[in-house]
Design brief:
Elements lengths: L2 E6 L4 H12 L6 E7 L5 E7 L2 H8 L8 E7 L14 E2 L5 E9 L2 H10 L10 H15 L3 H11 L2 E9 L5 E7 L4 E4 L4 E4 L11 E4 L4 E6 L5 E3 L11 E2 L15 H17 L3 E2 L4 E2 L2 H5 L1 H4 L4 E6 L1 H18 L3 E5 H4 L10 E7 L5 H12 L3 E6 L5 H5 L2 E4 L12 H21 L4 H22 L2 H10 L5 E6 L4 H15 L2 E6 L17 E5 L5 H12 L5 E6 L3 H6 L2 E5 L7 H19 L18
Parallel strand pairs: 17-18, 17-19, 19-20, 20-21, 22-23, 22-24, 24-25, 25-26
Antiparallel strand pairs: 1-4, 1-10, 2-3, 2-4, 5-6, 6-7, 7-8, 8-12, 9-10, 9-11, 11-14, 12-13, 15-16
The structure holds 5-amino-5-deoxy-1-O-phosphono-D-mannitol.
Length: about 625
């Protein structure tokens, strides 16, 4: 939620900031703004409702000079998206400008206190409180900016990544974080700030990922200094970040989402590289090797996640229970964090998150850690908060995912969960050698099979055109394909705004069948597995109610072809690996329906890629 960029150095700041905002626009896109310390010594703030392109139009005739600035793209929490609520916000003296990602929980109390002292607020945001508070402390106590920020942040409760400019000190930016991500890029005589590495990587690969309660003091011609609220110096690692620009650009595709769908075969090869050895009949996950005593014999495993990652968790449960005979529960992180779970040091928590920044998942991890559980993270964003909060984990290595609707991260998560379940099952002796060997070999073939499947893109596009009329969709699947149905429905609703529900196929008779008529298309995952005949009966029941059926079937299936209105064939694979293939046509179906309806696929309304607030 919200993207933050900052620059201090020798270049013109504005182009760096705007380019950075565009790279971070996936985090929020309802309004955008920039603050610059211009050559004439002014603090100029420009902000507008809409996207970064709207900001560019707005400032086209304005003074954007200067080599220091901060910029923000917003996902509204407090106050509607408009130019007043857009960031940066200015302190009451007009000297300080702030940008903020997060939520200040005690803002109402602080606002009241500041208003009682005569300070006027211009916006409805929680953010404005911080900048006035810093200014108030600085004036009343006659402190420098850093000390004022330190004092103010001791009063503030909530989540924040902030950056502050001072009109009277053009050689400094102060930045701080708690529970919202912030990265400092270190170049030659220049510094960059970003919510992640993407706005920085074009200029430097040297980065410092700030930890909670770190304050970065960025000063011209000085080394980066990181301190805490009491001004104690904090050692900071400068990491070399391995990210290339092609990974964060569209590469000829009309949307990031389509690029990411098509990247999946390569992503899964990257995910499995060095981990699967088909000839050696072996899976190596360093997290397991290093943590055998925690992972081989837990009392149970609890998977915590949100959204698509939660769907991957549902598949993970089936894989782990099937191969390892360990009981697994799958919890929404947002519910888990406020429950009073019975957990102890024999439990393992698997936290799944693409962004590694999801506030609810982080909070669930902290709760489980306090209760003594061992925490295993499955994340994509390297260096993000969740991998740093967990005891161990495995990255999915699918590269930056920018489209708001998750695609390649889902298949990457399922691939890591499959490898994890296989490796644990082997160690525990709960999976037969034959089955282990067969699944490893089939898993290694999945990227090639995905490539075959992706060739059906044009057919799926044709199918999608038929269904743009629909207001409701039902998605059905069973066993391993039940979470695929949930995920297919989520994809469709996120980007096309068509209401869609996923159900286990057999549940249809317990309620949803009442909705089925000729107006309601039903997508059924009906591959040839142990429940195939039962799913065929479901299709017949649907057809008897005149609904159109889109069926995802195994290659060469003539039975379902005779029943369904549209059919998409999947290459044969092991039943437990079917989600890796079956999810792809559902991603494409959602994508093409949304495009046909003229929707903004990469930046759907009300959503943000990284949900760093509750
Ligand atoms: O970054 P995370 O995996 O923790 O994000 C969880 C959800 O917010 C995310 O999967 C969301 O549901 C996506 N928009 C789904 O496409």
């Amino acid at each position: 939620m919200c993207g933050i960029v900052g620059y201090l150095g020798k270049r013109a700041a504005y182009p760096v900031l705007v380019k950075g905002l565009k790279r971070l626009e996936y985090r929020g896109y309802d309004s955008a703004g920039v603050a610059l310390l211009t050559e004439s010594g002014d603090l100029k703030v420009y902000k507008t409702k809409g996207k970064v392109a709207d900001l560019e139009n707005y400032v086209s005739d304005k003074d954007v000079s200067g080599c220091v600035g901060i910029a923000h793209t917003r996902w509204a929490t407090h106050g509607e998206p408009n130019s007043t609520n857009a960031h940066p916000h200015i302190s009451y003296s007009g000297n300080l400008a702030i940008i903020h990602n997060g939520i200040i929980e005690n803002y109402a109390v602080l606002k009241k206190q500041l208003q009682e002292k005569g300070i006027e607020f211009k916006s409805n945001t929680d953010t404005e409180v911080i900048v006035h508070l810093i200014e108030y402390i600085r004036t009343k106590k006659n402190l420098d900016l850093l000390s004022s920020v330190q004092l103010a942040l001791r009063t503030v409760i909530g989540a924040y990544a902030i950056a502050i400019l001072d009109k009277n000190d053009p050689d400094q930016i102060i930045a701080a974080r708690k529970s919202s991500p912030l990265v400092v890029g270190i170049g030659e005589d220049e510094f960059f700030l970003g919510s992640d590495a993407s706005p920085i990587i074009e200029y430097t690969d040297k980065m410092v990922y700030l930890d909670d309660k770190d304050i970065a003091v960025i000063r011209r011609n000085e080394e980066l200094e990181v301190v805490d609220f009491k001004n104690t110096k904090i050692d900071h690692d400068v990491q070399k970040v391995d990210l290339n620009l092609a990974q964060i650009e569209k590469g000829g595709f009309p949307h990031f989402m389509l690029k990411e769908i098509f990247e999946q075969p390569d992503c899964l090869l990257d995910c499995m590289r060095g981990r699967i050895n088909v000839e050696g009949n072996n899976i190596t996950l360093s997290a397991i090797i290093d943590n055998r005593k925690h992972l081989i014999n837990p009392r149970r495993i609890i998977i915590v996640a949100c959204g698509t990652s939660w769907h991957a968790g549902l598949i993970g449960k089936q894989l782990i229970e099937d191969f390892c005979q360990i009981p697994v529960e799958v919890e929404y992180a947002s519910e888990f964090r406020y429950s009073n779970p019975v957990i102890n040091n024999q439990d393992v928590i698997i936290a799944i998150s693409q962004s590694g920044e999801t506030a609810d998942t982080l909070a669930a991890i902290e709760l489980a850690k306090k209760k003594g559980a061992f925490i295993y993270g499955i994340c994509n964003a390297i260096g993000s908060s969740i991998p740093r909060a967990t005891h161990t984990g495995s990255y999915i290595h699918v590269g930056p995912e920018i489209g708001v609707a998750s695609t390649k991260a889902f298949t990457g998560q399922v691939t890591v969960l499959t490898m994890l379940a296989l490796a644990l099952g082997k160690e525990r002796g709960t999976i037969s050698n034959d089955r282990y060997t067969k699944i490893i070999s089939e898993l290694s073939l999945i990227p090639e099979k995905m490539k075959e499947l992706l060739k059906q893109g044009e057919e799926i596009k044709d199918i999608s055109r038929i269904f743009t009329y629909a207001h409701n969709f039902l998605y059905l699947g069973r066993g391993y394909n039940y979470p695929v149905a949930l995920e297919g429905a989520l994809k469709l609703k996120e980007i096309s705004y068509i209401h869609a529900e996923g159900y286990p196929a057999a549940e249809m008779k317990h309620g949803p069948i009442a909705l089925i008529d000729e107006e309601m298309p039903v997508v059924v995952v009906a591959t040839k597995n142990v429940l195939y005949e039962k799913v065929i009966s479901n299709i017949q029941e649907i057809k008897a109610r005149q609904a159109r059926v889109i069926a995802i079937v195994s290659e060469g299936d003539d039975t379902v072809r005779k029943l369904a209105d549209s059919v998409i064939e999947l290459p044969q694979t092991e039943e437990c690996l079917e989600p890796l293939l079956a999810s792809i046509p559902l991603q494409m179906l959602a994508y093409y329906i949304a495009v046909a309806k003229g929707k903004d696929v990469d930046q759907p309304r009300n959503l943000a890629k990284s949900v760093t607030v509750e």
